[in-house]
């Protein structure tokens, strides 16, 4: 784990290449294509934006060390992706990225946030549980070509915000 301070900022089209490199390292079996990121970023700006994509950048080197994305549809939001370069795991960056997405879920006025996570990805599941996500079901064979099941998790945004506010008040 490295402890360099990183800066979170909106993902832009020129980040797609370095993000893809990280994506292929983290998700070798089912990495997103450049087209998928282009298509998501096309909905990330302007008054009718429905996406939030964020990158974590090391300001000393300009290296992208993490990224995450959220899609909103009505009062539901979906965590589309989240990843942190291995040498930064365990330093709280995943939590920072997820916090950013949840703030935007609130800004998009979503009541619930859903996500899918591989059943064998206990590290990510623990991160989500810490934020109050609860398992609500499975999607069989969701991850192809490996035919791995997804655990579906849900967070009620209002509860998350209230807990966060209460937590801050008692600090
Ligand atoms: C899942 C993932 C995003 C988590 O990122 P991360 O930066 O390691 O996340 P965090 O550091 O915030 O939290 C992970 C652990 O570090 C610990 N941690 C958090 N802050 C810490 C700190 N300041 N010092 C030491 N440890 C810390 C947490 O306790 C947590 O452990 P626990 O949840 O087992 O209790 C990352 O492992 C990853 O990119 N995995 C591969 C891609 C992936 O699976 N994405 C999810 C797809 S659904």
Automatic annotation (TrEMBL):
Keyword field: Acyltransferase, Cytoplasm, Ribonucleoprotein, Ribosomal protein, Transferase
Signal sequence, renumbered to the chain: none
* Annotated EC: 2.3.1.266
- Name the SUPFAM superfamilies for this protein: Acyl-CoA N-acyltransferases (Nat)
> What Pfam families does this protein's entry cite?
Acetyltransf_1
State the GO CC annotations. Answer: ribosome
Tell me a Gene Ontology molecular-function term this record carries: protein-N-terminal-alanine acetyltransferase activity
Annotated N-acetyltransferase domain residues? 6-158
InterPro entries named in the record: AcTrfase_RimI/Ard1 (IPR006464), Acyl_CoA_acyltransferase (IPR016181), GNAT_dom (IPR000182), YpeA/RimI_acetyltransf (IPR050680)
Q: Which domain of life is it from?
A: Bacteria
* Enzyme class, first EC level, given as a word: transferase
Family that this chain belongs to: Belongs to the acetyltransferase family. RimI subfamily.
What's this protein's name?
Ribosomal protein S18-alanine N-acetyltransferase
Q: Which organism is it from?
A: Streptomyces pulveraceus
Q: Which gene encodes it?
A: rimI
